[in-house]
Amino acid sequence: MLRLAFRTLRLRKGGFIGTFIAVFFGALIVASCGGLMETGIRGNAEPQRLAAAPILVTGGQTFELPKEDPASLEPDDKRKFEDARLPERVRLDDGLVSRLRSVPGVSDVVGEVSFPLAAGGKPALGHAWDSAVLTPYALVAGAAPVAGEVVVESSWGAKPGDVVQIAARGKTESFRVAGVAGAPRSITQAAVFFSAADAARLSGHPGKADVIGVFTDPGADVETVQAKVAEAASGANVLTGIDRGVAEFPEADTSGTNLIVIAAVSGGLSVMVAMFVVASTLSLSTQQRSRELALMRAIGTTPRQLRRMVLGEALAVGLLATALAALLGPILGEWLFGQLVENGVVPPVLRFYQGWLPAVVGAGAAMLAVFIAAFVAGRRAGKIRPTEALAEAAVTRRWLTPTRFIVAALCFGGGTALAIVTVAVMTGPIAASTAGPAVILWAIGVAMITPGVAKVMTAILQWPMRLLGGIDAKLAVLNTRAGIVRAAGAVTPIMLAVGIATANIYLQTTQQELANQAFTEDVRADAVIGSVAGGLSPDLVQRIQAVPGVAGASEYVTSSVFLEKPYDSSDEGRPAIGLTASGAAATTDTKVTQGDLTALTGLTVALPEVFAKDYGRGLGDTLSLRLGDGVPVDVKVVAVTSQRPGFESLLLPAGLLAPHTTAGLAPQMLVRAAPDVDPAVLTERLREATAGLPVSVGDRAALVAAHDKDQAVGAWVNYLLVGMIIAYTVISVANTLVMATVRRRREFGLQRLTGSTRAQVLRMAGFEGGLVALVGIVLGTVVSAGAIVPFCLVAADSLLPMGSPLIYLTIIGLAAALALAATLIPAWAATRGPAVDAATAGSD
């Protein structure tokens, strides 16, 4: 039977092109997402400025978070922990440098500090000259710097003796160029070197090191030394090889984690869509050969032989398609990665990887879909009794099997359960975490009963269509109802395309709009002062508050903190905002229900009402926090606030929160104009007051635009990956409809011989395509509503999502245009020749 299968493929090339296309694109998308996931798992970036040191030591960026409330456990209970990631850089004590020097096999140890600066309008990183050996940089001219001097790169065009203005930590200072240095390799981030004392002062973290480079004795085994260094630097990360890049570019590690999530969600969604599309395409291809299969049963072919033939044909096509997808998967994956880099989602230093595993996973997922679809199709054909085979080939097959019914019931039950959880349990934007999976469940459930639903909808729509299209529309309805299983094969991918696109895009636009609303409602600032060199000077607040027309000014710092007591199970921490007490009330619209924000000084916190209720804490109570860099601190509750559900943040003094961020300073300051002062006038006064300082002054529009830009990055990722999946389903829609229409060449020829003109046949085909598109659009809309409505009720207190109606109109317009084009173009081609030739032609 396998030989027969291959002969059948050779004689029926056109009948298997559709299956090939569906399998190929499914495997291609899964393989490319697998490459993104592998890149995220590895999270590798080539070390540049730290490349000379074979071993690098960095602070531990994770800590053990209890999985259960320690207060609820008995003394003899075994405690379970999970790793929680700290959002800010964890620095090392300089004392570790001297301890590591005594480790056997270590020849030298160098502490490294990095801080952002601007010199001559160009951004760069500042370092101590002692750490130049980590690259290594070598002097091209001049000498090493002492206090008040710097060494710059040769590309700067400066020479020893020149004076440069350098902005760092919110101030601008003059430094003399002591020397010019060059590196043996290309360095992404420009470097300026200071004396050790100046570097410690400008970094803002004296006595601390960002990274420690360890050099080994000649001939020493790096892995052996690494183990000894790890023992001496307990709790720190000890890195070698390609892993050292994370020490220089910590954003690569964070971006790698985000890339894993993106690839997992998109790849999983792609697998689900591929399963449906491949199964639908192969099922349609097998249905179109029902007469041939029935004849084979009638002449004595056994059910087992028939199943083997159908399975062999499908696997042969699948293997060819997946082999080609495995070759092209890395190309698509690298292109997707390049798009993510260009749009700022991942840093350019992150290295793209696509090994053999993603290709195997993509091929395996596609082949699994092929096997399941072929097994079901072959099993159905093999179960027909020979005496009923020919009759069965002429009528519509029974579509509602026990398996379909059970799967549909489970999926509808799961979708309903997720909707209930979304409405009853979730709050704010986090409701999207249940709304997203609900789309898939509703889609699977509807796909299982598409033939039945399509039949009911066709019966309902037949009267309006007959009124609009007359006899042509009547024939279209009759054809659709007679071939309802065939029509359902085209309806399913349209439903998937409309449902997935509508749900995911509107979920994203609603979340984006809610975030923008929450930000604009909470921030009352008329102007914003931003830093161009790593942060604002802490004494700038008093200077700005003294400017005429200023009603209030406050530093604005964002980070995340972890609640340790009372116990909080969140492994991502809680959002925290740092404010200046004297200007917090004027620049933010946070409603204070108890206490006063002017008390937000020292070790204090303003707690959102929902947290106060959940944790049983109020005014005067103490919370134990772990700040973003892992430093524990006890704070006193001095205010309770009411904030938009889902966007609650702990409010801390900027002076407490900022030093425990990576920058160490507030990145921006909010300024509120007095009631009788025009915001434009205030902005101009602020520019005059900050002239000569390394800051930028913008109005409220600039503040909102910057926030919108941050939100747009996350939205773009969703649009790109969802768009890729939708493109696949679009191809599948066209594929299915073309296969179904081309198959009907003989039918069109007979229709023309009985008196219909070619124009009438094409109009009938157009009405059929429109009916299929309409049914698919309605079902897709229902599927998307099953996820969108519960989410919007919780997040926006509305039944409708936020976003332009043009999005939905564009989606359904494209679906309708695609369905009509994929029906009319093949129908036009099938009716070009003489009717008698078409009527007497074979069915292929």
TrEMBL record:
It comes from the Bacteria. Residues 267-385, 720-832 form the ABC3 transporter permease C-terminal domain. It holds the Pfam family FtsX. It is found in: Cell membrane. The chain crosses the membrane at residues 16-37, 259-282, 314-336, 356-377, 405-427, 439-463, 484-507, 716-742, 771-796, 808-829. GO terms for molecular function: transmembrane transporter activity. Keywords: Cell membrane, Membrane, Transmembrane, Transmembrane helix. Its main location: membrane. GO terms for cellular component: plasma membrane. InterPro entries: ABC3_permease_C, Macrolide_Exporter_MacB. It is a multi-pass membrane protein. Belongs to the ABC-4 integral membrane protein family. This is ABC transporter permease. It comes from Amycolatopsis japonica. The lineage of its organism: Bacteria, Bacillati, Actinomycetota, Actinomycetes, Pseudonocardiales.
